[in-house]
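Worked example

This section walks through a single chain of length 466. The input is the sequence exactly as stored; nothing has been trimmed or padded.
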Amino acid sequence: MAVEVFIPKMSDHMEVGVILNWLVKNGDHVERGQPILELETDKAAVELEAPDSGIVKGIRAGVVPGAEVPVGETIAFIVSRVEEVVPTLSPLGGIQAIAEAPVAEIQLAGQNPASEPAAGNGGPGRAAPAVRRIARELGVDLTLLKGTGPGGRVIEADVHAFVEAQKAAPKAETPAPAVSAAPAVSVSPVARRMAEEFGVDLARVKPGSADGRITKEDIQAHVESAHSAQPAPTAGSEAEWLDLNRTQLLTGQRMVESVHTAPQFALTVSIDMTRALELRDAVLARIEAETGARLSVTGILVKAVADTLKHYPRVNASFVDGRIKLHKQIHIGVAVGTEEGLVVPVIRDANTKSMAEIALELKALQDKASRMRFGPNDLTGGTFTISNLGMFGIEYFQAIINPPETAILAVGQIVKTPVGMPDDTITLRPIMKMTLSIDHRSLDGMLGAKFISLVKERLEQPYLML
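Given that input, the structure is written out below as tokens.
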């Protein structure tokens, strides 16, 4: 029986995946778990693995590098025998023939017809969503374009070439249209806040809904289109423009949404890391010999937090549609900064793993982050997040909650600090500040204080975790 290969939801906010590169072709034999496709999600590039062993067959037309494929779409099959028949998949985007428009209707005034792009090959069905957004922003009718992409699909370069052709063509003088007052625009509160944050003129945003209401999705599409259409800087310009990549753009948008929709407050404690560092020194050599990975302070933090979350399920939760979802499994995300942007790979079932296992998994995830190449489950399913900036000399900071999670723990640098001892002497101790940001819709201050106090106890008395 044929097994479908489809685009899975590889992060909590993923809606589409961008094809980067096929690693196999029709007729190739693959093993279950073998990478068969490189795919860009809203967070990073990931490798899509074969769901079963067998022969690749029926790769869908249009699923080529650069194509955007919605989550859940079937893109190929894996069969046990090469003669096995598989369903014929419609070309990506539901490509349909469009009646060719007369040349006279689309010819620009004074333009040579021989240089005019042929009509009839464009249209929403023959362009990726990102290209359609760019066309909408630039006011280009895709039905007037002849696509130069695979299968005649309209690509971004076709849109920009058409715009340049319009600019170059002489324009007939026409009377100036009468100026009329712009109609009132209906905007959702979240969309209005996002527009203010990103400096978007709402009058230039085209609503995507039938009722004409501008939503956050419309703002996101407008921002993406504006970045894609940003002209290259001219020689001698005083400023340099940098385009945000997909990861940076969507991360920023989610953080804006988090700040504006979740009532967040923070609790900070100072932790004496003397015994935790002694424990690390005691087991460091053994763990490195067994796994090849060095146990870091972050590894100890993951263990301490995972053990504490077992006692406070309200912290290991998500706020979804006005309700609190308590997760039975503890999947801890660890924020990692890369040149491509912030990613949060996830250590799954962290409460069931030893410090050695956590150290090994952290090393593997950091290696993947350095290459921005992740597996299908590396970036999804997190129930709590840790962000440690201590290695960069940051002593204290407050992190923004990663929605829909309930809380995030921000960890600073370990600093030798004068501390008053029980015998009234003063000594230097390795002190680390830790700040818990909480979504007040899910947690109150008392519960948050109890949670962070127990994490502090675990770190100051680490033998409790053994």
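What to look for: The mean pLDDT is 81.
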